UniProtKB/TrEMBL annotation:
SUPFAM superfamilies xref list: DAK1/DegV-like (SSF82549)
Protein name: DegV family EDD domain-containing protein
Any matching Pfam family: DegV
Key word Nucleotide-binding present: no
PROSITE patterns in the record: DEGV (PS51482)
UniProt keyword terms in alphabetical order: Lipid-binding
InterPro entries: DegV (IPR003797), DegV_C (IPR043168), DegV_domain_contain (IPR050270)
Phylogenetic placement of the source organism: Bacteria, Bacillati, Actinomycetota, Actinomycetes, Micrococcales
An example Gene Ontology molecular-function term: lipid binding
Length: 240
């Protein structure tokens, strides 16, 4: 059995109060999808217990699917100081980021209670390697290839398709102070991160397979909680 625990509101209150003590007058708190975790709810409770405005943003994503928007938002906030506009930017950056991944076995999902034992048994019998994404904050299975090679091939195809569809878009009509701010918001059509779970060499090979659309991609392990549910051998591609 795989068990994971969410963040307690008190832990978030401590984090917010540390920021207040450092002189910050407002906080934008971006978290893992509320459909997959209770962290957003904990953050909303914590937000009521501090003396500055705290805006909780549900990224509707996970891993670097929320990490990339936060990194870009950090740079944008050096120029865009209005809290309402900054919140709109945070939400748009999250909406502009896609994540696709493949799971090598359903066993870890079964142990975590994410799929039924019967479905896991069928998956094992037919050697199913699910390829999935996150839509509206929920896991959505795109295909169910029956070999690892086919799953990775499909993962690459989805990343390439998302890259081609997104390159150059500037989806949010908000006044930005300079061209550099606009460039931070503009969709690049690039794989910005590749996650792995105990299979770093396979991730390096996957990056090479993607070619130029992944030239700047960061190779990084899946966060521990996600790795616990996805299992060893998982791969993910994050596109902005």
């Amino acid at each position: 059995q795989v068990l994971t625990s969410g963040v307690a509101p008190g832990t978030l209150v401590d984090a917010y109060e540390q920021l207040v003590a450092q002189g910050y007058s407002a906080i934008i708190s971006v978290h893992l999808s509320g459909e997959l975790s209770g962290t957003c709810d904990a953050a909303r409770l914590a937000a009521q217990l501090v003396d500055v405005p705290v805006v909780v943003v549900d990224s509707l994503n996970l891993a670097m699917g929320l990490g990339e928007p936060v990194l870009r938002l950090h740079h944008l906030l050096a120029r865009e100081q209005d809290l309402e506009q900054a919140t709109a930017l945070a939400e748009e950056l999250c909406a502009s980021t896609e994540l696709f991944f493949f799971i090598p076995t359903l066993d870890a999902l079964k142990r975590g209670g994410r799929v039924s034992p019967a479905l896991a048994m069928v998956g094992q019998m037919f050697q199913i390697r699910p390829v999935a994404t996150v839509l509206d904050g929920k896991l959505h299975y795109v295909e169910r290839p029956r070999t690892t090679a086919k799953a990775i091939e499909r993962l690459a195809a989805l990343a390439e398709q998302a890259s081609a569809e997104r390159a150059g878009e500037l989806p949010l009509d908000v006044p930005l102070k300079d061209r550099e701010s606009a460039n931070l918001l503009r969709r690049q059509g690039q794989v910005v991160a590749i996650h792995y779970s105990g299979n770093e060499e396979q991730a390096r090979e996957f990056k090479q397979t993607l070619g130029s659309i992944a030239s700047g991609a960061v190779l990084t392990p899946l966060p521990p909680v996600l790795s616990a549910h996805a299992g060893l051998g998982a791969l993910a591609a994050v596109i902005f």
